[in-house]
Amino acid sequence: MGDQTNLEIPDQLSRAATLAKDAAPALANAQIEYLSDIIRLKTYTGEEGPAVERTLEEMRSGGFDDVRSASAGDALGTVGSGAYHLLYDAHLDHNEIADEAEWPYPPLEPTVANGKLFGLGASDCKAGVASIVYGARLAAQLDLTAGCTITVQGATLEEDAEGFSMRHLMESDDFPRPDAVLLAEATDLTLRRGHRGRCEVRVKVRGKSAHASTPELGDNAILKMRPILDALEAMTPGLPTNEALGSGTQVVTMIEGPRTPNSVPSWCEATIDRRLTPGETPESVTAEINSVVGSLGGVAVVPNQKVTSWTGLDLSGPAFFPGWLLDADDPLIEAGRLTCAALWGHAPPVDIWKFSTNGTYSAGEADIPTLGFGPMEEQYVHTALDQVDLAKLLKAVMFYAVLPTAYTLVRSG
Fold it and tell me: Domain span at residue 277?
């Protein structure tokens, strides 16, 4: 689904695009100031409170309705009152700093250089939050919400537990089910319609402990793990495949055992990162692995992941994040392509992400049409060159302001 320019742009959408392009530059300085403010805040997963409060403040000053914090701590605000409910989502938590010496600028000191803003979380995903906050604000300011009600979600917990906060919002907070979800993750102003899922699997084998001076009295669980590791590696060529998303992968990422160096280990556990195609379940994955390792004494399980929100809410659940793929002819994709064509004269490529997002819940579990669009570039995500191009940041504001018009036109026929 590459670049196509032969889209017929309705007059209403063309007018909306012209209004947005004319008005957006006046918001640029305020948007950069807000983005800089939240970059200054260290918001590791489960510690997003200050950025949530700053986002709620920005929504209030921008004229949003029903500005509030969800019980899991997400920042929420609404504009418009139409029948179609759009959820704009981007997350406020960011990856941890590995080595600050690698960064060209201090991670928590937003720096503008050569038209780009550098700082921790700029590309994943605070620039996305700034895009949807100001895109919805511009839509309301120009009366471009059309037939839509737009909820903006400054999400939490995404880096460690994609979709957990969104699941709680929709299933426990009496939040109205959206007609569509837009994810402002890194796409470099193109569209994304899905990605592989991921899960953690732990395979455990048991032996018998003994003093290391008499190993013949024990049964070394680490040695029993060796054929299991070979068997796990041999599974990779046969993992499920999706035509658009490619093949699943499976890699052993950790090995653990008792921390007793003078004893024969009585157990050994391997942790696996498994990348998933749509339709796989915890049961199908563990059954597949157990069919291979069971005869070798191994047992595979998907563990529970401990997740606590900054508000103190326990959201722990299975470490399983489904893959998903939006149909190529879904109206949401058409609306996204029309929006870009109306703004910039061409429809962008429609591709997939390599990484995982909150779409694991919205599309992978809840089956809500979900589409990605953001100004950030994937090459800078989780790197010391964390950045966003400010011209692209402003274009994303225009996209999110105009999309409700396109979506309303597409849905209403």
Answer: 198-304
